[in-house]
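Re: that chain you flagged

S.,

Sorry for the slow reply, it's been a week of failed gels. I finally had a moment to sit down with the sequence you sent. For the record, here it is as I used it:
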Amino acid sequence: ADGVFDVMVQGPPTRWMIEQGHLCPYKIVIPQSDYKYYLGESKGDSDYSKEAMAVASLKSHIVGDVVENYVKFAIKKQAIVFASDINAGHRMEKKFLDHGIKAKLLTGDTEDSTRLKTLFDYRRKELQVLINIDLFDEGLDVPGIECVIMARPTKSLGKFLQMVGRGLRPIKGKPFLILIDHVGNVGEHGLPDSSRKWTLNRIAKRKQKVNLIRICKNTECNAPFDRLLSKCPYCGMEDEPAPRGSGGGR
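Prediction finished late last night. Pasting the structure tokens below so you have them in one place:
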């Protein structure tokens, strides 16, 4: 009808919320991973299928990588893992337990009483790692998270920001959130507090994304930073780009 138009109301940006103390700062770690090598392409603008993610989780080293890098970068921190499928979640749970780290997997099939008890145990720090399958990426507040581990890729910027947001709640004694990305979500969507131009225009949304992030080659750091820099701002390592066609690895 005449006179009808779309209106988009924007809230305060994430960077401003961090600067004002409403959200906590963060540090990102992007370890080397072979997960994307085994992950099939998504169709158009749709997200990855559950089947494709399950295959990549089974064929790649992501289960061991998740535990190894938690021990390396976030040991004893209260962590939440976003896993892609139940099989991978069970294997991660067992791997954590084998390392003496108290972990619990929750899925949509978990009984409400078990889910509630697990959340209480996590809040009391009787559990260190909470593994979930599409449960906590939106709509549920899980307090006390110090580390977010991404083992589930997504093409959705909203889902990515919701996953990160689970750990941005400021709590006493938490100087920053540790975000460990095993599946390329930061490369896909950029930093959580990047400046973004929001639009209702579908054509603008479909424009090709440009990756402006470089990953530090120091395995003790593995932090992302602006591609224009030749030195990692976190550890100081010179990080010149690899020669074209040189490929990559784990």
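What I noticed first: DSSP finds nine helices and eight strands in the chain.

Talk soon,
D.
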